[in-house]
Amino acid sequence: MNTKVPKENKSLSYKNSGVNVEAGYKLVNKIKPLVKETKRPEIISGLGSFSALSKLPSHIDNPILVTCTDGVGTKIEIAKAMKQFNTIGIDLVAMCVNDLITCGAEPLLFLDYYVTDKLNVDLATEVISGIAEGCKQANCSLVGGETAEHPDSFPYQSFDLAGFALGIVDQKKIIGQNLAEKGDVLIGLASNGVHSNGFSLIRKIINKDPQLLLSNIQGETVGSRLLTPTKIYVKEILELKEKIEISAISHIAGGGFYENIPRILNSDSKAILSFNETEWPAFKLFEWIRSKGEIQQKEMLSTFNCGIGMVLSIKENDVNNALDLLEKLTIPSKIIGTVEFKKKEEASLDITLN
After folding, report:
1. Do both 156 and 204 map to the same domain?
2. CB burial class (10 A; 0-12, 13-18, 19+) of residue 346?
3. Are the C-beta atoms of residues 84 and 76 closer than 8 Å to each other?
4. What pTM value is reported for the model?
5. In this structure, what CATH number is given to the domain that contains residue 262?
6. Same structural domain for residues 33 and 161?
7. 9 in a domain, yes or no?
8. pLDDT per position in the chain (354 positions), as tens?
9. DSSP three-state, residue 178
10. Which residues contact 290 (CB under 8 A, 6 or more apart)?
């Protein structure tokens, strides 16, 4: 009588289910030197702790904690197409700390969330090197985060990012508590380019002809120009707020001008904007987007920053001093409008392009 011996079932493990914890350990070791370079003196924990510990900065008398979170959207797809991943992390930090700075908050610490189908340690290290660089530019500490593998959930070598920032501001020095005041002058600060919004629209253009990424704009490929990292405005605004009273600040991100300018206005106020797009350093890129996509002007202003990344509302008497200081800080800036009284039937925003 033949007796069949049952085959031994192959033992399951976390690794053969698609999650490689050893790769995660390797990544942590590779990024430790990058994280160390971002450490502020208030941070009293190290990378690898289950949570991050921080003192409050001693130079702030009446500390108020400020938090925000953001991502970089489908700009990641342009990074994949160009095989260039060292700047996308700067974008992640910028989108968070630029929101913090609108109320005058000094960024203190940053955490990231990196999720992928299968962890590519070299690619992840390149991304996180950008996050560390962004933290250095914003003078905040990269104190930790989460790297997650989600098998069978992402296309090959795809990933997504989220960032979380904690800032701190003196309660007596919060910007925007009373919003922009009637009679204020609006000053625009130049952007580096598209920053990290509107890429779903841009990709509609690129998807029709992927070779467009390799076409030329002012000596750069379109792909590289699109990946120019988001400008971080922390240094300039922290320096400016010590010398100039800033009524309010608008970060021109998702929703462009039509969504973000009204957020700093009282219900009885309107913003009258008038500016020449060609005067801003990023004009050529936005002109390319508009022409290739046959996009209407209002749609451009409702989606992109069109060359202006931040708008400051400042008292008329302080405008010249503000512009002088911004020039010393080497950031292009111009008067782009005013805040005026609004009648009930009027819109909150009126834009004229010269």
Report:
1. no
2. exposed
3. no
4. 0.92
5. 3.90.650.10
6. yes
7. no
8. 555 555 555 677 767 767 777 777 788 788 888 888 889 998 898 777 788 889 999 999 999 999 999 999 999 999 999 999 999 999 999 999 999 999 999 999 999 999 999 999 999 999 999 999 999 999 999 998 899 999 888 887 789 999 999 999 999 999 999 999 999 999 999 999 999 999 999 999 999 999 999 999 989 999 999 999 999 999 999 999 999 999 999 999 999 999 999 999 999 999 999 999 999 999 999 999 999 999 999 999 999 999 999 999 999 999 999 999 999 999 999 999 999 999 989 999 999 998
9. coil
10. 297, 300
H helices present in 117-198, as ranges: 121-138
Number of domains, the chain: 2
CA torsion 193→198→200→202, rounded to 10°? Answer: -40
CA nearest 40: which of 87, 110, 99, 145? 110
Tell me the C-alpha distance between 131 and 222, whole Å.
23
Task: Look at residues 105, 136, 171 and tell me which one is the last residue of a structural domain.
Answer: 171
Residues 111, 164 within the same domain: yes
What is the CB neighbour count within 10 angstroms for residue 132?
A: 23
69 and 45 share a domain? yes
CA distances from 63 to 50, 86, 105, 258 (A): 25, 34, 10, 32
42 and 168 in contact (C-beta within 8 Å)? no
Question: 261: which DSSP letter?
Answer: S
